[in-house]
Amino acid sequence: MKKAFFVGLVFVSVMAMICSAHGQARLRMSTTTSTESSGLLKVLLPPFEKANNVTVDVISVGTGKALKLGEHGDVDVVFVHARPLEDKFVADGYGVDRKDVMYNDFILVGPKDDPSGVKGAKTAAEAFTRISSGKADFISRGDESGTHQMEKALWKASGIKPEGKWYVEAGQGMGAVLQMANEKKGYALADRGTFIAHENKIGVVILFDGDKAMFNPYGIIAVNPKKHPNAQYELAKKFINYVTGPEGQKVIADFKLNGKQLFFPDAK
Amino acid sequence: MSFLFDSLHEALRLVFRFDPEVYYVVWTSLKVSAASTVFASVVGVPLGLLIALTGFRGKSAVQLTLNTLMALPTVVVGLFFYAMLSRRGPLGDMGLLFTPSAIVVGLFVLGLPTIVNLTISAVHALDKRLLLTCKLLGATPVQQAWKILHEGRFGILASVVVAFGRVISEVGIAMMLGGNIRGFTRTMTTAIALETSKGEFELGLALGLVLLAAAFFVNAMLFLIQRSKG
């Protein structure tokens, strides 16, 4: 009885693993947390998967790590938002065929009563200067993600080195940081897409937006097959063409949450 | 309070709505945990018997190492195998990273020290005269081991139960080696981590309850096996 049970268990599990590992073609994509947690990929991927009979494996991490996975050759395509890092990724020979996909913008969120008075700021740099008064916490992603890159650039523009008790480095994804800002009644920089997705679950509100410096473009890059012969370049290329083509762009434009459009397609 | 109540409600809804995605996540968790526990048992129980029944130089050092490994953080195992299985790593050509097999490998290493250690304890807890009697009656080493295994089955099965509990509840290895890929390597624990980060606490807690229920089911089966042989 015991023996039979264990033999059966081994058999079933091994079979299941073999089936699931070699069922059909798989394209591996590392991407920023915002594309998945906003729900965009749930509508963007299925038409491509169906038409090409492939499964797109999504590894959703911060932009910094997403690019690292591409550098290591552990994925076939990366879909991220941090233009300077993306250009470096291509210049270093890790990626090819970079294309613009869509954009939205970053926003500063915080508690409704706005203790640091961010609301009246004219520029993002000024808003950040006001936050550095330390009247309330600022929750930083602290994870080298695209949002974190943008945050660092904005601190630089304001000429302030963020330090002190009020500067909280969370080391977590966008959603978790928004939750934390909500719990600690603090400020945070967020991409608009993720914020809209969380809006009805948290109490923080948009206090500053609209500065050109807070523009948030998303790009897609195939991993260079010359660097990593294992990378599925043809399939990645197909996927890039789909996302930046009329079909994918329409899915992005039509994607709404709470009646609001999250991403604006801008592929050329 | 209503928060917990909502979660319970959501959990029941999840279970009875028969959402294929939820069931796939449960299935993935059970699959990788069961496979890794079985592999760890197949290797760990004989290894534990061998260490317990033989005397050799450095035995204390081995046991001390095993005890230390029981405190192995899951993210360290994840990181180590990430470095091994990444395309840049020595085993990269196998293409295992971000597959269920990669999780099984990591969980196997996580569970192994537990099984070896507790098997050693189970054997030590047996009456010393058992082995002597076996030897006096002229049993071959294999026959001796078999007898010890049979006498110590409760303790040894307990080691398997503990190992299963450790591997099904961990999140670091599943996240780092599996990548939390929807419909492929998403396990219950990584799904909970994801839902929590999205602020879907009810769904996260609900999945936690489902995880407990699944663990209960597996342990109940092991319990029945234990009893039926008793």
Automatic annotation (TrEMBL), chain A:
Domain PBP residue range list: 28-247
Keywords: Signal
Protein's UniProt keywords contain Signal: yes
Keyword Signal appears in the UniProt entry: yes
One Pfam family here: PBP_like_2
Annotated signal sequence range: 1-23
Name of the protein described by the UniProt record: Extracellular solute-binding protein
Source organism of the structure: Desulfomonile tiedjei
TrEMBL record, chain B:
Record-annotated membrane-spanning stretches: 32-52, 64-85, 97-120, 154-178, 203-225
Residue ranges occupied by any ABC transmembrane type-1 domain in the UniProt entry: 26-222
A single BP term in Gene Ontology: transmembrane transport
CDD domains: TM_PBP2
Keyword match Transport: yes
The UniProt record lists the keyword Transport: yes
Top-level taxon in the UniProt lineage: Bacteria
GO cellular component assignments: plasma membrane
Stretch forming the signal peptide: none
Membrane topology reported for the UniProt record: Multi-pass membrane protein
Keywords: Membrane, Transmembrane, Transmembrane helix, Transport
InterPro entries: ABC_perm_TupB-like, MetI-like, MetI-like_sf
A Pfam family of this chain: BPD_transp_1
Family statement: Belongs to the binding-protein-dependent transport system permease family.
NCBIfam families (alphabetical): ABC_perm1
PANTHER family: PERMEASE COMPONENT OF TUNGSTATE ABC TRANSPORTER
Protein name in the entry: ABC transporter permease
